[in-house]
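User: Just a sanity check before I run the rest of the batch. Below are the structure tokens for the first item. I only need the designed sequence back.
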């Protein structure tokens, strides 16, 4: 039986373990933390990632239905810039990261072994396998150890790695009773977004331009339109993280028998909400290519050829959208908002008449 070691037990790592298990591989998952689990707040699971999870047998993540409440982009005073219904965008499933993580790990079978409290310090490989810390060996290693990946640094020591975006992010979960479909509010160098989770709570996030490493509170958003003040007041915990993505061009996702996956390969800003989804799609693509080819090296080359160009586009698009969202110049902000309004009207005019009526702001 083929063997694999997955380094990192975040969303991408555990999805890779399930995917490899379904291909008939024996998998060892290594996690630095003392316990298996996921921290954070909400996460968007787009239809393409939902499809991968369904193929892997993960239950409980369903495709979102159409928006039934007003949602879209607003100004800090509450005036609408564009409605989500006008843009005709896909609707993701919104779920807490910990809940999604539990749904995926529930599919672990006898072929998956988990070792927590394990810190990877060295990795070496030859034509027959890969060795971790001189005590573990497998046919394949999947590096899902995050944006500051130890394994990526070992493989590509000259690579610049993470790049600060120029803004920090706040996140929280609010258990509040509001009648709002959510969306984003764009100000000057600040952004606030919120969406309902499938469990009835609301996930919210905010960004603000500031130097890397500065600690702050999202107090400026307390004067923004309803229900933003209520969401802030209804959150027991507020997380703050500076936003980084990976320097372009991305390094190859494969070197020998070692594969980069998720943030270790293509960490992106959260503006498109595609980071975790891309990791899930990585896992699905890796398993598919391994299943379609009897030669490991050929399968890994096909994985890199598929996933590196696709995720490079997402890193670029997400970074570009983040720059637009975080603009501070009032004139540029006005032009930006006007273009979004015009774009929404044009898209709305081109859309065919729908038989399902949606609530509009």
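Assistant: Here's the designed sequence for the first item:
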């Amino acid at each position: 039986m083929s063997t694999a070691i997955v380094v990192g037990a975040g969303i991408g790592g555990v999805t890779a373990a399930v995917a490899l298990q379904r291909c008939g591989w024996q998998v060892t998952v290594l996690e630095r933390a003392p316990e298996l689990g996921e921290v954070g707040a909400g996460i968007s699971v787009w239809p393409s990632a939902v499809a991968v999870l369904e193929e892997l047998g993960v239950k409980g993540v369903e495709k979102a239905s159409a928006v039934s409440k007003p949602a879209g982009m607003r100004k800090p005073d509450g005036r609408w810039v564009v409605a989500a219904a006008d843009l005709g965008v896909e609707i993701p499933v919104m779920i807490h990261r910990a809940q999604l993580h539990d749904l995926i790990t529930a599919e672990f079978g006898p072929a998956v072994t988990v070792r927590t409290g394990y810190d990877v310090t060295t990795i070496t490989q030859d034509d027959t396998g890969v060795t971790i810390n001189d005590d573990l060996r497998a046919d394949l290693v999947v590096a899902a150890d995050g944006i500051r990946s130890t394994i990526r640094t070992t493989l590509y020591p000259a690579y610049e790695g993470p790049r600060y975006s120029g803004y920090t992010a706040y996140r929280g979960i609010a258990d509040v009773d509001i009648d709002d479909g959510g969306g984003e509010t764009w100000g000057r160098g600040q952004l606030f977004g919120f969406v309902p989770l499938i469990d009835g709570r609301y996930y919210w996030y905010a960004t603000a331009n500031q130097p890397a490493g500065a600690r702050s509170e999202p107090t400026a958003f307390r004067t923004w339109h309803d229900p933003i003040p209520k969401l802030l007041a209804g959150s027991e915990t507020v997380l703050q993280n500076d936003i980084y993505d990976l320097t372009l061009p991305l390094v190859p996702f494969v070197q020998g028998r070692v594969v980069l996956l998720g943030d270790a390969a293509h960490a992106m800003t959260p503006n498109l909400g595609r980071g975790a989804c891309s990791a899930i799609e990585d896992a699905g693509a890796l398993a598919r290519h391994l299943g379609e080819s009897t030669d490991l090296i050929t399968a890994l080359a096909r994985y890199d050829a598929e996933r590196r160009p696709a995720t490079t586009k997402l890193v670029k698009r997400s970074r570009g959208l983040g720059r637009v969202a975080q603009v501070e110049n009032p004139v540029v902000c006005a032009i930006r908002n006007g273009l979004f309004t015009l774009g929404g009207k044009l898209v709305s005019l081109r859309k065919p008449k729908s038989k399902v009526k949606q609530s509009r702001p």
